[in-house]
Amino acid sequence: MDRQFDISLERAKQFERLFGWPILFIFLISFIVMLWTKAMWVIPVMLVVSMGMAYKGYVEYQVVRAFAEHAAVVQVLRYRLVDCWIRAASLFVLFIPLYVNEGAFILTGGVVALWSLTGSYREKKWKQRIDLHQPQLPTYLDILEKEEDAWNYHQK
Fold first, then answer.
1. FRET label pair with 29: which of 102, 129, 138, 155, CA 20 to 30 Å apart?
2. CA neighbor of 84 nearest in space, from 115, 124, 63, 127
3. 3-state secondary structure of 139
């Protein structure tokens, strides 16, 4: 388990270093260019961005799951993973109707906006469920910043 955790943590750090800011930059530039030119190449770019978001969510799930001690906490972490995948898929799906039908784009945009607006509520409820069963569970960022301390905590 120790080696598997070290590999997952190293992959998470490598993903953050290599793809964190470039993905955000590609997304913003592609969105601006798409609005100006209505270029069709934005759809594959958004597919790559959404796949990166889904992979990042999976890596976050793997890293934090190593510290989960209760089955209900693992279940909440799975809900977070599914939420991340839905956000990634909706980001990609949002751009397809823009070229096919503007009415469908508005409808899809409304669904994506509604999902995003309710995200803070879902996150608050998940945090409450985690705190109920395991209040000392470290966050993903805490684990990445203090990997030695976090792993030693898990061994106690």
1. 102
2. 115
3. coil
